[in-house]
Amino acid sequence: MATQTSPPGLTPEQLSFFNENGYLLIPDALSQETVSKLLSETNKMLQEFSLHDHPMTKFSTGDEDGGNHVGDKYFLQSGDKVRFFFEEGASNKQGELIKPKERAINKIGHYLHHLSPSFRSISLSQQNASIARSLGFRDPRVLQSMVICKQPEIGGAVPPHQDSTFLYTDPPSAVGWWYALEDATTSNGCLSFAAGSQKREPVRKRFVRTGEEGKEGTGFIDNEGTRFPRGQEPVQNGAVNGSPSNGGGGGEEEYTMGEVKAGTLVLIHGNLLHKSERNVSGKSRFIYTFHVIEGDQKYDERNWLQPPQEGFSKLYRDVAVA
Ligand SMILES: O=C(O)CCC(=O)C(=O)O
């Protein structure tokens, strides 16, 4: 019988960088062949999705007060589907598209890691199981995935935020896996990170479902649960200034730019403040990202994203055999 050895996870140096800074860049995590395949798959989805019956939901990250964040039924029911969300700048005041549809989409989500064989195989992989082991996950669950397009000229900014605001477990446990499918630069809206902020910035807010049947929506509430991952509480818990809107910190933070080549994997701690700027360049910035939480932490019904019938995808059990 053939035996399988697990691929190596993170090196001690990589783990130490992640623990110190809250993010880690891993160049060449995907081969250029895989990147091309994922880009073709993405372009095919963008060509093939239908505008007929589409509610034209835009992916809005909200205003200064954290209001107006996307939150309609199309969005709230996307956890077990592949759905298409528009860039805010893709339409005029009358709501008509001013870009071809394949250049108008901000993101595709949120169940690619289950429904798309290509994206599934790079998500629920032996390699990622090994990385999750290095990070100390006991029962890692992939709970959402998306392609973020950051389209040329109209690609929207993503304001400073912590992923655990949006994917809250008690205690927080989210980690983002973010793969560049095209080179990401300061010109086309690469990520930037407030290095080390995961150690000082509590998860103060949660992004939750609001309203009742027929009047569904989303909003931010104060987080009454635990604010740091277990064992990572700072000595003076919550001693940081700031009044966050989108769940991000209000204090002055210095951001380190994360320019990366296509194929790079970026790991992002759920408490880490990070953001990306608008893309006003002529080049798109396609990426694929999915998020992982600890399966044995409390995940409640207030979270905007609710598990599919089959539950969130187990990274240790659902590992695709290459
Ligand atoms: O890709 C981007 O521009 C932002 C992604 C991000 O912040 C996230 O997935 O948490």
What does this structure look like?
By secondary structure, this protein is α+β, with helices and mostly antiparallel strands. The chain has a single domain, classed as Jelly Rolls (Sandwich), CATH 2.60.120. It is built from 7 helices and 14 strands. It has helices at 12-21, 32-48, 73-76, 112-115, 117-123, 126-134, 163-166, and strands spanning 23-26, 82-86, 105-110, 140-148, 158-161, 175-180, 191-193, 205-210, 217-222, 256-258, 265-269, 274-276, 287-294, 313-314. The strands form 3 sheets. Strands 1, 2, 3, 4, 6, 11, 13 and 14 form an 8-stranded antiparallel sheet that branches. Strands 5-12-7-10 form a 4-stranded antiparallel sheet, with no helix packed on it. Strand 8 (205-210) and strand 9 form a beta hairpin. It starts with 11 loop residues before the first helix and ends in an 8-residue tail after the last strand. The structure holds 2-oxoglutaric acid. This is Phytanoyl-CoA dioxygenase family protein. Its cofactor is Fe cation. Keywords: Dioxygenase, Iron, Metal-binding, Oxidoreductase.
